[in-house]
Amino acid sequence: MKTQFLTLALLPVLAFSQPKLKKVPTLDPDKQTILANLDKQFPNYAAISRQIWDFAEVGFHENKSSALLQDELKRAGFDVNADVAGMPTAFVATFGSGKPVIGLLAEFDALPGLATDAKPEFTPISGQKCGHGCGHNLFGTASLAAAIELKEWLKKEGRSGTVRLYGCPAEENGEGKVYMVREGLFNDIDVALHWHPSSVNVANPYSTMALIAARVRFKGIAAHAAAAPEQGRSALDGVEAMNHMVNLMREHIPSDARVHYVITKGGEAPNVVPAFAEVYYYARHKNREVLRSIWKRIENAAEGAAKGTGTQVEIEIEGGVFDVLPNVTLAESAYKNLKTVGGIQYTPEESDFAQKVASSLTSKIDLSYASQVIPFDSATAADNSSTDVGDVSWAVPTVGFVTATWVPGTGPHSWQAVAASGMSIGQKGMLVAAKTLALTALDLYKTPALIEKARKEWVDRRGVDFKYESFIGNRKPPVK
Description:
- One of its GO terms (cellular component) is cytoplasm.
- One of its GO terms (molecular function) is dipeptidase activity.
- It comes from Spirosoma validum.
- This is Amidohydrolase.
- The structure is a single chain.
- By secondary structure, the protein is α/β, with parallel strands linked by helices.
- The protein has two domains: 8-207 and 323-462, Zn peptidases (Aminopeptidase), CATH 3.40.630; 210-321, Alpha-Beta Plaits (2-Layer Sandwich), CATH 3.30.70.360.
- Helices cover 38% and strands 18% of the residues.
- It has helices spanning 29-55, 63-75, 136-157, 176-182, 235-249, 288-309, 328-341, 348-358, 389-395, 415-421, 424-446, 448-462, and strands at 79-82, 91-97, 101-107, 111-112, 130-131, 161-168, 191-198, 206-207, 210-219, 258-265, 276-285, 312-321, 381-382, 398-404.
- Helix 2 packs parallel to helix 3 and helix 11 crosses helix 12 (448-462).
- The relative contact order is 0.18.
- The model is unreliable at 1-22 (pLDDT under 50).
């Protein structure tokens, strides 16, 4: 069933100032045209990002958000293949033909909780439970805007080349891209581009931590804990024994590994020996093979705990992502274009908003960082977060960057990020991202040698004999 949306003309008028095109006399005329077009279309894209912000749909349930982006792409002349890789909100939109094929990643899922109005203080929204605390309403919209501009350029030039937008659901707690990689949807593209909302403008090469997530369920025998405890076998004992062994193991794994857990089910009453208990584990490391070995030891701890407590154990892998494979060649190109575009300038109203938000932050960073682009550093930085972009980066040469969509000092998954993502500060940073994506892709279309160089670096880092084997195995997407 086709979902109907209000036309952009009927959407609420948003308070934002029209960004000014940065005058660069020596800039490629095609780039000047793209920048001018994106400036002209900024109000439309700001409205789209705000509508997705209002939808605030969590992973695998982004029905309105996904349909809105798909409808925009269809109107722009893209062929849209929906419901891909077993995920109803995932899609692939394509325009053009032949090589090179440049892919743009788009996310649009929100986070549970964090619902707040776009104001400089926490202001809960009645009846709303979710919020865009990672700015994916901006992420998806900027990628959409860049894809449409690239389509216009390819159409005007009449040249060989394909632009493809990947609608990627459930980045937060579902790792949608992993299912898309496993399905082979990235196998025929030359380069993948992505970006992410942030509080600064950076395009340095970086890596992340590989992650495995699983629920460990113990089954025991219920009994009266006082009258007949000898007849019971405590599932909670299994959980606690496992946790104790894992905590002892921390001394004997690499110091940069991360292991964290929560007990999600521990029993119903103290006087009943628990027949069921569950613990939810995350394990991370910057090297996926080291992570595999750590995870095997965690599984051994679970099996040992079950044996020692007379219980049974079941381990369900719920998710897992690879570390991001950096590409300095592509990062240098993205940086040059981000530097060309530049950061954002606050209006007096935006400055007042930013100062009020900054007063609530524990990390104090000068607000001028929003207007600056941090100098390039070719040394690969290691981020302690994890993302399903990691799997994409092992399937195709990939590059990403961040722009200042939030008040400097703001961290992701915060009410401050939600607020800025729903107003002009976030929308201006989104426009910086759209421009940088489009200009970087344009360089790739025009310079085949750049793609060749990036691919050589990618093969050298990945290894010629690499074979992809996801952490999730044959698990189906949890789209219920």
